[in-house]
């Protein structure tokens, strides 16, 4: 996993991993706030934003990389629930006071295009989970126009950017072309059960893990109860994709957070893994190996025992990924139901009810 350091110290850590050139000329604008363009210095959040960037990407972007980091981090903070109502600079300061980082990971770049992952770390408390987005940015008329998942700009960039491969573009647009959304405001149980498009639980079919946490919100506090926790079982602790799609390692190489966008209108998140396979918009098959259950907190939060925190997200016609409700949906052959409080919900299948503490098999039908 890449060290998540401030911009001023990221260079040393990345160079040690062979991911960033050690030549001062390749990184001066990021290391030295005085090297920023004067116009950006007053309100730029990026001197305190953690930047991950391979040396080849830094060289390709040249001096313009600072404005890219400014544009992406400003967009991220405008979308972050925890930065609501604050200026970008004030938001970064507030988060830093809570020992939380804003991370912009620039994975690839070409002429006038850049793409990667950006996230806001979760509080270092039990059940807290991070906020994260894929982004694509386009430089036009000397300005970077970033698009985060759900932005109109993101959809436009997916269609045009040479940094999006053919298979990934097909997966990301497959549901958008239906001009519909899998998330209804007042869904019926019948519609919910039928509308998961064959998603499996996050391990191999016909093996079992133990349900350690019933339906709860991704953050453990507010929002749709979209998430489940699993551990143990006879699946050797191996976490696998719920369906085919394109996978991205949100924390970078070695980090325990992966997102998979599926072609059927959903995406899924997997957190706390160790020994993770690195993916970067990579096409994968159903049940592809993502990692092992673990206690990784590469983007904040906490974990007291090895498990996978699995979350259901939509991926709608606007390329918008949002954590969504589990209640009434069938995943892995089990219908999932909310409990009276978070983490207490159960699942039913063929007249059997499985609550937290129960080992359940992953079924394809």
Automatic annotation (TrEMBL):
InterPro entries reported for this sequence: Dup_hybrid_motif
Annotated source species: Streptomyces griseus subsp. griseus (strain JCM 4626 / CBS 651.72 / NBRC 13350 / KCC S-0626 / ISP 5235)
Entry keywords, A to Z: Signal
Gene3D superfamilies hit by this protein: Glucose Permease (Domain IIA) (2.70.70.10)
Signal peptide (from-to): 1-28
Name listed for the protein in its UniProt record: LasA protease
């Amino acid at each position: 996993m890449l060290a998540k350091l401030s911009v001023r110290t990221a260079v040393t850590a990345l160079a040690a991993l062979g991911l960033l050139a050690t030549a001062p000329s390749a990184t001066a604008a990021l290391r030295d706030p005085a090297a920023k363009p004067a116009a950006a210095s007053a309100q730029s959040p990026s001197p305190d934003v953690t930047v991950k960037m391979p040396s080849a990407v830094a060289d390709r972007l040249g001096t313009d990389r600072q404005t890219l980091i400014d544009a992406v981090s400003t967009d991220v903070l405008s979308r972050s629930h925890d930065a609501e109502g604050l200026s970008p600079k004030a938001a970064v300061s507030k988060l830093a006071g809570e020992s939380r980082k804003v991370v912009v990971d620039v994975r690839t770049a070409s002429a006038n295009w850049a793409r990667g992952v950006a996230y806001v770390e979760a509080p270092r408390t039990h059940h807290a989970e991070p906020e994260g987005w894929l982004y694509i940015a386009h430089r036009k008329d000397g300005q970077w126009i970033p698009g985060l998942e759900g932005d109109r700009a993101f959809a436009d960039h997916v269609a045009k950017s040479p940094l999006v491969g053919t298979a990934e573009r097909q997966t990301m647009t497959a549901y958008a072309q239906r001009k519909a959304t899998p998330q209804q405001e007042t869904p019926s149980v019948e519609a919910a059960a039928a509308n998961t498009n064959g998603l499996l639980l996050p391990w191999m079919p016909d093996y079992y893990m133990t349900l350690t946490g019933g339906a709860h919100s991704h953050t453990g506090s507010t929002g749709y109860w979209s998430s489940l926790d699993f551990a143990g079982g006879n699946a050797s602790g191996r976490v696998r994709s719920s369906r085919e799609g394109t996978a991205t390692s949100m924390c970078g190489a070695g980090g325990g957070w992966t997102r998979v966008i599926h072609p059927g209108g959903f995406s899924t998140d997997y957190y706390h893994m160790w020994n993770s396979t690195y993916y970067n918009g990579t096409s994968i098959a159903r049940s592809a190996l993502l990692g092992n259950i673990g206690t990784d907190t590469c983007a904040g939060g906490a974990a007291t025992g090895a498990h996978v925190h699995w979350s259901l997200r939509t991926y709608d016609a606007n390329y918008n990924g949002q954590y969504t409700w589990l209640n009434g949906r069938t995943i892995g052959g089990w219908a999932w139901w909310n409990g009276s409080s978070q983490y207490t919900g159960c699942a039913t299948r063929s007249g059997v009810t499985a609550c937290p503490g129960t080992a359940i098999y992953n079924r394809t039908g």
